[in-house]
Amino acid sequence: MELNLSKKAKLSAGIDNSDTENNDDIVKKEINYNNNERILCYHGPLLYEAKILEKRDFTGSDSEDSVLIQPDNSDEEETKPIGTHYFVHYKGWKHTWDEWVPQSRIIKWNEEGLAKQKELKEGLVGSRQKGKGGGENQATKRSTMTSTRAGEVKRRKDSTKTPEPLGNNKQINTQGVENKNYEPKPDPGFCFELGDKLKSLLVNQRDAITVDNKLTKLPKSPSVKQILTNYQEEFSKNQTKSDKIQYPIDYVNEMIEGVYLYFDKLLNVLLLYPQEKTQYEKLISENSSLEVGQLYGGDHLLRLFLELPLLLNHCNIEAEYLNNIKELIQELIRYLESHKDEYLMEDWIDAGELK
To answer: Which intervals carry biased composition (Basic and acidic residues) (predicted)?
Structure first.
């Protein structure tokens, strides 16, 4: 499965569009761009196809139109742009993402620019694959998990910063994991909202496993991988029909990929009851070519959303970062609840049947 997460896009963990000025081999200070010209524009860590709608030379004068730019420091007020800026529209994105950008974020649409776009994308994919290698880091904070709405999040100051680990053996406190009952814990900064039906399902899981000696029948269908793929496809179909979620499909795709990676890395560490460990080991040994997200289903995915806030609290993450994670993942939780009968059906076996 291809699980393809401005001020708008700052879940890119330390990515700053302003640092694109360092790309002196491509960004030329004196280049002039024309209205309706096809360009490449930095948005977060990547270059996207865009079109110039308008050009202005700002002096910062109060007499100019009220065009505001979010400052680097979120405690400061928005400021007026100074110098040449272009109003751009990203191809395939809603017009709510149109924005004023400095010339340093724009690259000519030519072979050199397209090569740079490809290089950045391949580099990002490569870093993700490297993060899946395991080692001490049990989970990696996604550098581009998602984004924020236009003008809501400040720019960060280091576009080349390596995403810090979400948690490792020292950061993730697993003490007492085997006794957890998967009920909500004290608020670590935020909690994802679960409807009564989902809460009831979690309680039923706990009682069935710890009291009635039951186990979920595995492999589960649909799997976590199938569920996330279905959500991805449904979002893609509906994004042009509703303004409810103001995120480009690219960023939602990356959020989905991040959730899938979290599940893969954290299932055996945090999401299983002790009674489920033997089943897990047997399942993995018999399906060594498959990922856990292809073997487990929505009932185990649901547990992840209780753990994520606590895990994220172990990282040095700004409040804005957490709020944006919450907004995107909350929509995914609502999707799960609306498809409860399809994705969260209980199917139990007696633990004694496990051989």
So the answer is: 151-161
- Give the CATH number for residue 217: 1.10.274.30
Domain that holds residue 119: 17-124
Q: What count of other Cβ atoms lies within 10 Å of the Cβ of residue 224?
A: 26
What residue has token string 């009291």?
Answer: 211
- Is the pTM higher than 0.70? The answer reads no
Q: What is the CATH classification number for the domain harbouring 25?
A: 2.30.30.140
Q: For residue 265, which amino acid is it?
A: K
Q: How many domains does the chain have?
A: 2
